[in-house]
């Protein structure tokens, strides 16, 4: 079950677009989200086992402060993306995964803001930067882009090779956030494989979408339509290797733990 926390003014719109969602109205007064006061947070989090923060949040009013406080005042596994990440730019000391599962899913621009550097610097040392950030903050970092990286708190880094340029469009990252959260909800005690599987399946669904359509025309929601193809796809490995092959002989390699 997925519950969407949205401001009261758009509850009807969201419910109409996606009727499968449960809706939890967020109280808003003069641009301020008043949902962390008193017992409102407890009511908001009732029955929630995984939290996804950021997509659709925006930065108006106290949205960024709301994101930071929501992360600080909850203990369930959390996936942070989009404006949830931007809320921590210049405040990364607040991102500490010790004692809880925390997953960040930045694209290079968001990573640059978090790390206080340029996108060019991020791209120049993707594996090194992802590994350092993950180990220093005790969290899992999904650095999106060509060959999306999944860096873990122990220093290991997985390199995903599914996905294609058609996925470099608005909304793709939001869908990945949802898949990661869904996998964590189902496999809370196997975080590394849950996140890696989510990244792999997301990219593979994008590959199926591009194969069925064209890279120029694939939209983020087209990827969702091909998730079932990704789940059904199997690869037989005669050599007993632990690589997962994509549509074009690609693979998912794991870099060892940092020494």
Number of domains: 2
Order of helices and strands: EHEEEHEHEHEHHHEEEHHHHE
Please describe the biggest sheet, giving its number of strands, its sense, and whether it closes into a barrel: 7 strands, mixed
Kindly name the structural category: alpha/beta
Q: Which CATH architecture of the largest domain is right?
A: 3-Layer(aba) Sandwich
**How much strand?**
5-15%
Account of the protein in words:
- With 259 residues, the protein is α/β, with parallel strands linked by helices.
- It has two domains: 1-43, no CATH class; 49-255, Ribokinase (UDP-N-acetylmuramoyl-L-alanine:D-glutamate ligase, 3-Layer(aba) Sandwich), CATH 3.40.1190.20.
- The protein is built from eleven helices and eleven strands.
- It has helices at residues 11-17, 40-44, 63-72, 83-86, 108-115, 119-124, 126-137, 172-186, 191-212, 220-225, 227-232; strands at residues 3-7, 22-26, 28-29, 32-33, 51-53, 78-80, 102-104, 140-143, 149-151, 157-159, 253-255.
- The strands form three sheets. A seven-stranded mixed beta sheet has the order 5-6-7-8-9-10-11, sandwiched between helices. Strands 1-2 form a two-stranded parallel sheet. The protein has a two-stranded antiparallel sheet with strand order 3-4.
- A hairpin with a 5-residue loop joins strand 9 and strand 10 (157-159).
- Residues 241-246 and 248-259 have low confidence and may be disordered.
């Amino acid at each position: 079950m997925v519950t969407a926390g949205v401001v009261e003014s758009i509850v009807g719109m969201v419910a109409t677009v996606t009727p499968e969602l449960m809706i939890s109205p967020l109280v808003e007064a003069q641009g301020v989200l008043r949902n962390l006061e008193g017992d409102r947070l407890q009511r908001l989090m009732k029955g929630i086992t995984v939290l996804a923060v950021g997509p659709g949040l925006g930065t108006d009013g106290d949205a960024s402060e709301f994101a930071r406080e929501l992360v600080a005042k909850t203990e369930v596994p959390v996936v942070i993306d989009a404006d949830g990440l931007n809320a921590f730019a210049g405040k990364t000391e607040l991102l500490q995964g010790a004692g809880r599962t925390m997953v960040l899913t930045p694209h290079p621009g968001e990573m640059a803001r978090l790390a206080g550097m340029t996108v060019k610097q991020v791209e120049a040392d993707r594996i090194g930067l992802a590994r350092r950030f993950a180990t220093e903050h005790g969290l899992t970092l999904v650095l999106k882009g060509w060959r999306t990286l999944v860096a873990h708190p122990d220093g290991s880094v997985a390199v995903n090779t599914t996905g294609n340029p058609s996925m470099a469009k608005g909304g793709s990252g939001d869908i990945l956030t949802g898949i990661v959260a869904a996998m964590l909800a189902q496999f809370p005690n196997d975080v590394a494989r849950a996140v890696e599987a989510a990244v792999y399946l997301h990219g593979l669904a994008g590959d199926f979408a591009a194969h069925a359509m064209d890279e120029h025309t694939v939209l983020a929601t087209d990827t969702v339509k091909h998730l079932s193809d990704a789940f059904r796809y199997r690869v037989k490995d005669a050599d007993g290797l632990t690589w997962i092959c994509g549509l074009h002989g690609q693979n998912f390699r794991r870099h060892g733990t940092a020494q």
